[in-house]
């Protein structure tokens, strides 16, 4: 049994819920999983496999997720690492692939992480704070664009790869 770390960083709970669903699928495949806010992860020593997910805000990753990668580059290079980000909202959001922000792309390359996956996000005007963000959250971009079946399929794929790596 492998313990997988699923670390998430967001503002309004949407990314945490994705991390929880990813964790659920990994557990269903027999892995032990620690699901943690990236801000609470000091090091990754205990985990042979790591998933890090961030919400996208203004085309950037959340600081705590970037910090987790920055502070653990050497250890992560020795581990299986998957990255995802969640953000696109509005019609067609589920099909949008967003490239990693440049600084995160550099870290991903140093770590030799798997290709990053983009999941749609959730924009709920009731949860968003600030005048400008609230304006953004209105109209056709408002709503929940997280495709749970895609998220679950991706998580199962991660789980299978963790299993096959461990049994090598
Ligand atoms: C102020 C603001 C800026 C955002 N910027 C981006 C962005 O640059 N790219 C993107 O794909 N989504 C963007 N989003 C959408 C969020 O990433 C999406 O709502 C996500 O699900 C939020 O996750 P959270 O609930 O974990 O904070 C933005 C949302 C807000 C409110």
From TrEMBL:
- InterPro entries referenced in this protein's UniProt entry, alphabetically: Flavodoxin/NO_synth (IPR008254), Flavodoxin_dom (IPR026816), Flavoprotein-like_sf (IPR029039)
Q: Which segments constitute the Flavodoxin-like domain?
A: 4-159
**What molecular function terms (GO) are annotated for this protein?**
FMN binding
Protein name, per record = Flavodoxin domain-containing protein
Source species of the chain: Amycolatopsis carbonis
Question: What lineage does the source organism belong to?
Answer: Bacteria, Bacillati, Actinomycetota, Actinomycetes, Pseudonocardiales
